[in-house]
Amino acid sequence: MTTKEQRIIQEEFKNRMNEDELLNCMRCGFCLPSCPTYVESGFKETHSPRGRIALMKAVADGLIEPDADVERSLDLCLGCRACEPVCPSGVKYGHLLEEARDIINQNKKHSLSAKTVRNLVFNELFPHQKRIRAATGLLGFYQRSGLQSFARKTGMLKWLPENLVTMEKVLPEVPTMKEMKNRPSYFSASGVPKKKAAFFTGCLMDTMFLETNNATLRLLQLAGCEILIPEDQACCGALHGHSGEKQSAKELAKRNIEAFENLDVDYIITNAGGCGAFLIDYGHLLQDDPQWADRARDFSAKLKDISEVLYELDFHKNVKLELPSQVITYQDSCHLRNAMKTANAPRTLLKAISGIEFTEMKDADRCCGSAGIYNIVESEMSMQILDHKMVHAKSANAAAIVTANPGCLLQMKLGIEREELSGKVNAVHIADLLLEAAGEK
Amino acid sequence: MIESQIKDRLTAIVGAENYDDSKAGRLVYSYDATPNFQAMPDAVVSPRDAQEIAGIIKICNSSNIPIVPRGSGTNLCAGTCPTEGGIVLLFRHMNRVLEIDEENLTVTVQPGAITLDMINQVEARGLFYPPDPSSMKISTIGGNINENSGGLRGLKYGVTRDYVIGLEAVLANGDIIKTGGKLAKDVAGYDFTRLFVGSEGTLGIITEATLKLIPLPETKKTMLALYQDLEAAAKSVSKIISQKIIPATLEFLDQPTLKVVEDFAQIGLPTDVQAVLLIEQDGPLEVVERDMQKMAEICKVKGAISVQVAQSEAEAEALRTARRAALSALARLKPTTILEDATVPRSEIAKMVKAINEISHKYGLSICTFGHAGDGNLHPTCPADARDHDEMERVEKAFEEIFIKAIELGGTITGEHGVGVMKAPYLELKLGQEGIAAMKAVKNALDPNNILNPGKVFAKDSRKRVVVTK
Fold first, then answer.
1. How many Cβ atoms are within 10 Å of A189's Cβ, its own excluded?
2. What is the reported pTM?
3. Of A349, B333, B404, B460, whose CB count within 10 A is highest?
């Protein structure tokens, strides 16, 4: 960063950071033990929530400049928000982080290559569901055409960083273009309809994890929901919001609000904790936009995760759930737990499956290190966190690690691969497991 | 600024990775949990053992560089705020529980060990370390010893001081001394162990501690007594004690505190009453049941509108956790949360509660009160806004009056948070000039160059509560 950039960023911190929220942190330190990067960095306060808030405040107050160390501290944050539920003062850390990252990213000159990649990902790919489909199609071609086995055999992959090589192995077998395109936009409830739901498909969930989306729809039907899938919905914007691209996030939010607001539904359902946490915060994202603030709040008020809805509709009591005898454990999705406050529902649903023994893994509520694209851009810290996570996962002796978010699912698959446990342990999305337990898979 | 030659010598001792003088690295150790205190250290150093600390101290002593030992920075008296710059010393590498001795009932720990982690390890062996400061899930044993921390169980079991039986410490001249030991009795010379406990890092750097353990009580029960009258709650406290019952915990929370705590914890605390007492007893089942019943009766006679017994350990733990969050939860109300811990003999608790209320009215402030009523240690807390100078002045005056009242009632200016910088101006109220002179004589003898946490305990000429330097 140049001195001039620093000066502009500092000015922006002064103008834009919410001073009351910064002051709301009374520095009691109760958040420290919950922070994965504080613990993994060997208890460095620069990598703790309290430290990061102090840095943001110091920049806003003009005590220090937003130098590379400050940026590093913010970059290394997973954004898991585990510090929020343990904060007695109720500091909204996630909002502070998002604002700070946006200020830095919007005012810092990125290198040409970084600019190209950011533009490609944030503006050209994610806002366009068709292009994501096309990209997934390419991946499907890679997997089915023999190219994958060729790449693996010839050792071409060794040019990639180690965790990307492993990642390549754990990617699910993706659906064909035809499967992705030909899904109806309306589903009736099985039996008497109890509730009307609109389904938020998500961009990755509706391509790479299409099967999980289909399972989610089927579960909703079984639970007595009539389902609408609005065509015009877009990516939730979480990726943008967490990476300092707030303006694009707002545009996506508006598209989604428009797509859903005229549907007369009881719920808007998501099955990805990461998306859910962002969608439920649209009210905050658009709070300063008088045309949208109320509409955003209405949208967020209807939002629920699939497990919360199934739990509310007594799915686990009304549908017989059974699996072959096995131990299973659950890895919380940070955003589902910390932002959407859903932690009990998935566990209750899983425990209702006869034949299974549910074992709580130690620190299940702690981030797995996936955190959006964190496992790619901060792979060293991410893998350190994952390796510690796998120690606890192994002690649970579970045959299946259940998750509730695509990022966590891939990361757990990555962990299983790294520990050479594939074949013995399986990572699975809760929707897929529940549908299997309902005897439909 | 630390000269580059000295930086090189310090780096040679601890390694470059354990010496940080970056702006961000220093900024995050410029504060602790005390509102309105912030000052940049010149460097942050993380030694790995006592020998390294001895090396660091020698360099600092010959170059007049202040050293501020810091645990997790949760103290409430600005005890670890580096108000005079210098080096902040971290114990993140010295954080192990070294030994649990089940024959002597002791635990030996390094100063950076997290209090709750140590407690969990000890309890897994059926042993008990009672001091439980509210910050224990992140506070360190070293910090607890230096501040002589109390907690919810102080009434029955005492405070940190009552469990420290041996120390290893590095003095300002670099000497490493050992005090006490795994001994139930030891009168060999001055009791340096006790002198170091609560010394706030001003006499030496503690590098290892041996703590006394007791058997873990067999059972524990928890209840809440609800009141529509603050003084009735306070009077119940004195009555319980005078009836010769010593509960493990006897905590007081007033309505404003209950409301914010419930906002955070959402466990169904009663927010429509003026005050509650959180009461616990532990020990053999029959004793616990008898005491709990007696206390419930006393509370009712003294005006409790209802008494609710926790139905499970989970429910009890939720109540304790909620109580521990009280101070930070009060930070929800306004940007700056000023709290004190004036303490009076427990027979005077009702008078103190009344005085706090009168003083808060007098200065037009809203003071929320919670605390360890059973041991006379209250935490009147004032949600304020540091940006409002007029309000801050009124807060200042109100707390001065609270201190004076506490002393009048035979109490003290701080029960468990320590003097630090924050209460240094008031220390004379408690000790008198002669008392301060005697303490200074000890300080000068052990740290003649005043490098160990300077500016703490003893006040400078003028009072300055807001210290922000670049």
1. 18
2. 0.94
3. A349
